[in-house]
């Protein structure tokens, strides 16, 4: 091969070496300390410290360096120091540390070691934020500085860098349901109804509020006060539907005010299209469809009692189940006659976002239906709960008493296959799958965990009292809710992917971070 011969910087043994961001200097670390060298070898090095150093790295600007001292290499004491261009230093900690990494903006350093994971102010002025005391050997901070991934004795764990209960806590009030919009910016939450003993000892139901919450701005507004009604939200966050014994009402969330009553008949099932433009709802009186812009009155689809209903994202297709277990497909823009699905005693129905795949769980099993062709296949021949489906219907999650199965369902042939995630010993409460079908969150009494579709455990979501979870429509955020309130995790970010180039060259994403944040290429 041709080209210039290599430049020998030093012949002294080193444990680490790396370029600065512009490639003009080389930072070395080892038993002889940490030094800065010109990449062309044309000048003597600038010695930062003669104390043995386990690791050293630049920040994104190349103006500051973090070093890790290790007594195993002969250092007098362990610890982490930050150095400026003039060789001045500040010691951040004298704890035993195995990894230290700057945030992209250089303002924070996340450290990991036998004493846990800590987010530290790079100047040493602000107090450190301890995320966990569990022994950890590596930690990395997201490019926007909001989340930290640690690897250690507890596995791979996802943390909020602020230390606020490992997530953004939207409310600490007990919450029974939460809906999250496409971009993860707006939530619709409903508190938990409680029973209060009256003076005569009788129990009186105290209904909870349904609240609209803006995640990033921290704003909240009560949509419905003191009601036993349930509520759902369109995936674009523009409209909500409340339903219950008083009927069904649609609400404009962009211009809060009085809702539009669609029906005063007791309603126990409803679904809303992605843009909030169409609502399908039903009860013992039957099934109806409304356009929420008021361009036409509601239209009756059936007078058969309705148990559950689902609608495609574009509002053109709906599926429903009745209390006698019949499952029907409705063309809301065409043929008024429904198509019956070959399902026995279905107690629920799910529909992919494109309206092409339906799933009917029942006491006798879980069946997948291809709506356009009329084909179907049985996934499970026994009852399963916690069934979820991704946006295009290519992946379906079923839950049993000992774990979950992630099914790849591309077509009836070849037959669907499943990856089993064994969670024996945990009491499972809920599952959710992201729109791409690549990640699954499982909520149990032992906590919430994030998994890949091929059965790899990606991260633990450390929040107590969770009872349910949902991904945002773009997969960027995950909302968990339960007795401890509502918590939001950022699990993917376009900003993080855009910042990847700034992290290349010694500060790339870890494999775990790539998996959790869905960074491609990694």
What does this structure look like?
This protein has 522 residues and is mainly β. It has two domains: 16-141, YVTN repeat-like/Quinoprotein amine dehydrogenase (Methylamine Dehydrogenase, Chain H); 168-491, YVTN repeat-like/Quinoprotein amine dehydrogenase (Methylamine Dehydrogenase, Chain H). The longest helix has 7 residues, at 511-517.
Enumerate how many helices there are, as a single number. 3
Radius of gyration based on Cα positions: 28 Å
Strand order across the biggest sheet?
1-2-3-4
**Uncertain regions: pLDDT < 50 for 5+ in a row?**
493-507
Strand content: over 45%
CATH topology of the largest domain: Methylamine Dehydrogenase, Chain H
| CATH homology group of the largest domain | YVTN repeat-like/Quinoprotein amine dehydrogenase
* CATH architectural type of the largest domain: 7 Propeller
Brief summary:
With 522 residues, the protein is mainly β.
Outline the fold blueprint.
Layout (H helix, E strand, L loop, with lengths): L15 E4 L5 E6 L2 E6 L7 E4 L3 E6 L6 E5 L9 E5 L5 E5 L5 E4 L5 E6 L2 E6 L7 E4 L3 E6 L5 E6 L2 E6 L7 E4 L3 E6 L5 E6 L2 E4 L5 E4 L3 E5 L5 E5 L5 E4 L5 E6 L2 E6 L7 E4 L5 E4 L5 E6 L2 E6 L7 E4 L5 E4 L5 E5 L5 E5 L7 E2 L9 E2 L5 E6 L2 E6 L5 E5 L4 E5 L5 E5 L3 E6 L8 E6 L5 E6 L5 E6 L2 E6 L4 E5 L4 E6 L5 E6 L2 E6 L3 H5 L1 H4 L7 H7 L5
Antiparallel strand pairs: 1-2, 2-3, 3-4, 5-6, 6-7, 7-8, 9-10, 10-11, 11-12, 13-14, 14-15, 16-49, 17-18, 18-21, 19-20, 21-22, 23-24, 24-25, 25-26, 27-28, 28-29, 29-30, 31-32, 32-33, 33-34, 35-36, 36-37, 37-38, 39-40, 40-41, 41-42, 43-44, 44-45, 45-46, 47-48, 48-49
């Amino acid at each position: 091969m041709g080209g210039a011969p290599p430049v020998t910087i030093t012949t002294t043994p080193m444990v680490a070496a790396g370029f600065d961001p512009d490639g003009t200097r080389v930072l070395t670390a080892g038993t002889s300390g940490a030094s800065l060298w010109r990449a062309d070898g044309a000048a003597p090095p600038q010695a930062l410290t003669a104390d043995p150093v386990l690791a050293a790295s630049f920040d994104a600007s190349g103006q500051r360096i973090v070093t890790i001292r290790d007594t195993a290499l002969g250092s007098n004491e362990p610890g982490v120091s930050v150095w400026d261009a003039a060789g001045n230093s500040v010691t951040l900690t004298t704890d035993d540390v195995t990894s230290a990494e700057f945030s992209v903006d250089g303002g924070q350093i996340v450290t990991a070691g036998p004493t846990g994971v800590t987010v530290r102010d790079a100047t040493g002025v602000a107090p450190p934020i301890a995320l966990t005391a569990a022994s950890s050997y590596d930690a990395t901070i997201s490019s926007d500085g909001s989340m930290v991934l640690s690897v250690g004795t507890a596995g791979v764990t996802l943390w909020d860098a602020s230390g606020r209960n490992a997530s953004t806590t939207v409310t600490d009030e007990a919450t029974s349901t939460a809906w999250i919009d496409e971009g993860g910016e707006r939530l619709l939450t409903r508190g938990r109804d409680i029973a209060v003993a009256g003076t005569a000892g009788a129990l009186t139901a105290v209904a909870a509020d349904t609240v609209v919450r803006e995640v990033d701005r921290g704003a909240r507004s009560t949509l419905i006060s003191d009601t036993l009604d349930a509520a759902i939200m369109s995936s674009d966050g523009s409209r909500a539907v409340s339903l219950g014994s008083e009927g069904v009402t649609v609400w404009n969330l962009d211009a809060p005010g009085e809702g539009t009553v669609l029906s005063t008949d007791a309603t126990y099932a409803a679904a809303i299209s992605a843009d909030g433009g169409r609502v399908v709802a039903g009860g013992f009186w039957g099934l109806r469809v409304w356009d929420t812009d008021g361009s036409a009155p509601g239209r009756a689809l059936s007078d058969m009692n309705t148990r559950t209903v689902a609608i495609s994202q574009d509002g053109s297709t709906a599926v429903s189940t009745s209390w006698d277990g019949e499952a029907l497909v409705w063309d809301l823009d065409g043929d008024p006659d429904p198509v019956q699905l070959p399902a026995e005693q279905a107690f629920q129905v799910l529909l992919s976002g494109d309206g092409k795949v339906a799933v009917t769980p029942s006491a006798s099993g879980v069946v997948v239906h291809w709506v356009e062709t009329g084909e179907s296949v049985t996934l499970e021949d026994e009852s399963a709960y916690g069934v979820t489906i991704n946006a295009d219907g290519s992946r379906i999650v079923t839950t049993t008493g000992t774990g979950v199965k992630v099914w790849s369902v591309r077509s009836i042939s070849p037959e669907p296959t499943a990856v089993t995630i064994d969670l024996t010993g945990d009491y499972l409460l809920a599952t959710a799958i992201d729109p791409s079908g690549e990640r699954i969150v499982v909520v149990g009494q032992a906590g919430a965990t994030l998994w890949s579709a091929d059965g790899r455990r990606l991260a633990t979501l450390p929040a107590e009292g969770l009872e349910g979870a949902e991904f945002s429509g773009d997969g960027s955020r995950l909302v968990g809710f339960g007795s401890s309130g509502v918590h939001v995790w950022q699990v993917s970010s376009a900003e993080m992917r855009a910042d990847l180039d700034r992290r290349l060259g010694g500060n790339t994403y870890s494999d775990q971070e790539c998996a959790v944040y869905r960074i491609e290429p990694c």
